[in-house]
Amino acid sequence: MRVTQVVSGFTLMVILLLGTAANAERVAVATSPNGNIGLEFLLLPGSPVPIPGYRITWAGTEVIGPSRLGIELDGESGLGTSTQVEGTDTRTIDERFEQSIGKQRHIVSRATETVVRLRETAEPRRRWEVVLHAADDGVAVRYRFPAIQANDSLAIRQELTEFRLPETARTTALPVQNYTSSFEAFYQTQLVHEQAVDGLFTLPLLAECGGGVFAAITEAHVHEYAGAYLTPRGGGTLQTRLSPRPQEPAIAVRSKLPHASPWRVVLLGDRMGQLIESNLLLSLNEPCAIKDTSWIHSGKTTFPWWNGYYEKDVPFKPGLNTATVNHYIDFCAEAGIPYHSLDGLGDEAWYGGPINPWKGDDPTTAVAGLDLPAVLAHAKERGVRLRLWMNWKAAEAHMERSFPLYHEWGIEGVMLDFMDRDDQEMNRFLRRAIQLAAENQLTVSLHGVSKPTGLERTYPNLLTSEGVLNLEYNKWDKNGLPAEHEVTVAMTRMLAGPLDFHQGSFRTVRPGEFQTHFAAPLVIGSPARTLASYVVYQNHLSMVADYPSAYRGHPALPILAAIPTTWDETRVLDAKLSEFIVIARRSGETWYIGAMTDVHARSLHLPLNFLAAGRYRAEQFVDDETASTRFLIREDSVTSTSHLKLALSAAGGGLVRLTPRP
After folding, report:
1. Is 46 helix (H, G, I), strand (E, B) or coil?
2. How confident is the model at residue 12 (pLDDT cuts 50, 70, 90)?
């Protein structure tokens, strides 16, 4: 349901004297429904005329100071260099929608939205608009470019959008060298004024702004547009930078008019957990474009590339062959894992040729020794469905033919990999690939890709994305993935949406015991931490990435298999950046709590006041350094007035399952 209230527009001509930002004039404001957040449109002092800008307040305190808005066009004066305000329109939004696969099923979106209509004072006197969107969990700003006559076009060199944080703000962000990246690196935490001028950071960027306020800058609804980055300009100011077109590096966006930019989003909260709980990015995207979504199912998948096709005591040589794939299919059927992923071994793809770069091999023909029809028949008999990995170049060349064929074969979905860009052309390809997959009832996961932007609302067959330094690095990094990084990404990269992490290994070691193995890699942590990660990370196609005999007989396997992969409700119970995180998620009447810590052991006391009335069975799967498996299961009876105590070992974790008692 959507309710819209329009306030009549008015015409303004504002002439300001030159001065400081304190002389800025407020033209319009969008206020969040709860009255806590204000998003103001300003005219900032400029020469010879004022410059459009904005400001964000939280409970009356400035979070983003007066910051510039504008667009740099190709071969012309930029939008925002000579501006007058022609009018404003304001509406209230009250929308409800269902996200069948996500961190919350029923979503309510309430906001105030104000459109500021602008026109250049100098020739060619183009019209453009700035849209302000203020919700209770954050704000968003976007540009709209109306068409004046037929065949109007747009060529954008860069955006001038800025974010002026308090100079005392502490930021956590992912630095990159340029716009070609796997987006797999460690996050960097520093005061905003310490950031190197002209450096480059990906989104989301998290800022602790002082006074207990958290802000995260990211983007939503990226359609026919380049992905955005941030570059420091000094004094706490971050400027938006757009990924350039590969064959035309001076231009970021070319489009027909009318057109709209993505939303520039600032998530806000007075606790870290509010940012994780937010559904603002979904709300800012278009409604579901798939009429019948009944075929879309989340689930777990095996992924043998991670373990290097390692296996013990089997009567065949593990590899890209029929016996190995059938072995995994049998394991999936026994363990209750719905999907098996057919990927690659070392640098060889399942369809032949190198994994990367793609050399022209046909992604509908398997390598010698892999009888794909026989494998598909065996999977069908065992009630397991296959997923197929593809280099994105192979998909680009063959998806119009291969996707319908995959559907005919009964393939569940595809993973696209090695995009390593988010320019306009790549974003166009990905949307088309996801749309074509939906038309052929295929789900999609993305690796070698930038952060999500809420597209999974429009195309819920997009189940998960990588874009993060994850447990695959344990295959070759001599230090292994540190525990604090695993906690950090839940409060940074995961703010943008689903997070794929190569999860699943119970072959865990304590900090300091790690050794590198390309096949059968180790993981720093504990079995309970592995279980907890399936709740902490929002991942609707989570991996069970180790080899079958590493799971068989382990007491944690049936627990892992039972953890849901989509949720009705999400609540963050406690979190401290890079130190620990505790998230509760509900599926039906059952709640799961996942807790993960850094290298420090800690005890957590968790109130259960989010539970409904009645008694609950509390099954706890926790660290036990005295047990041979380092794993303990215990049970209590609790109510909403109870507190649970979880003792986490160094780099450990814990899982709690809360089920109503009759």
Report:
1. coil
2. very low
- Work out the pLDDT band at 23, boundaries 50, 70, 90: confident
The whole-number pLDDT of residue 150 equals 66
Measure CA 473 to chain center.
Answer: 19
Residue 500 has φ and ψ, to the nearest 5°, of: -90, 140
Model confidence over 545-580: pLDDT tens digits? 999 999 999 999 999 999 999 999 999 999 999 999
The two structure tokens encoding residue 375: 């494998």
189-207 pLDDT, tens digit per residue, is 999 999 999 999 999 999 9
User: Do 63 and 54 meet the contact criterion of CB atoms below 8 Å apart?
Assistant: no
Contact (CB, 8 A) for 302 and 415: no
Separation of first and last alpha carbons in the chain: 36
Coil vs helix vs strand at 157: strand
Rounded to 5°, angle at Cα 211 from 209 and 214: 40
How far apart CA 336 and CA 561 sit, in angstroms, is: 6
The tens digit of pLDDT for each residue in 342-352 reads 999 999 999 99
Tokens standing for residue 390: 């593809």
Q: Residue 646 half-sphere exposure, CB side, CA atoms within 13 Å?
A: 33
Beta-bridge partners for 570: 585
Give SS3 for 501: coil
Which DSSP string do the residues of 229-288 spell out, in sequence order? EEEEEETTEEEEEEPPBTTBTT-SEEEESSEEPPEEEEEEESSHHHHHH--HHHHTSPPP
Longest CA span, the chain: 84
Q: Where are the alpha helices (DSSP H) in 356-465?
A: 372-382, 392-409, 424-439, 455-458
141 within 8 A of 262, measured Cβ to Cβ: no
Region of 162 (left: φ > 0; alpha: ψ -120 to 50; beta: rest) is beta
Q: Where are the alpha helices (DSSP H) in 491-552?
A: 527-536, 548-551
For residue 24, name the pLDDT band (cuts at 50, 70, 90): confident
Pull the structure tokens for residue 649: 């070992």
Report d(CA 269, CA 267) in Å as an integer: 7
Could you report the per-residue pLDDT of 25-60, keeping only the tens digit for each? 899 999 999 999 999 999 999 877 889 999 999 999
Can you list the positions of beta strands (E) in 100-180? 106-120, 127-135, 138-145, 153-159, 162-164, 170-173
Average pLDDT of the chain is 94
Share of the chain residues as helix, strand and coil, in percent rounded to the nearest 5: 20, 35, 45
pLDDT for the residue numbered 17: 28
Q: Helix H segments across 506-556? A: 527-536, 548-551
Question: Position of tokens 């998960």?
Answer: 464
Average pLDDT over residues 176-184: 97
Return the exposure string of 89-127: e unless at least 16 CB atoms fall within 10 Å of the residue's CB, then b. bbbbbeeebebebbbbbebebbbbbbbbbbebeeeeebe
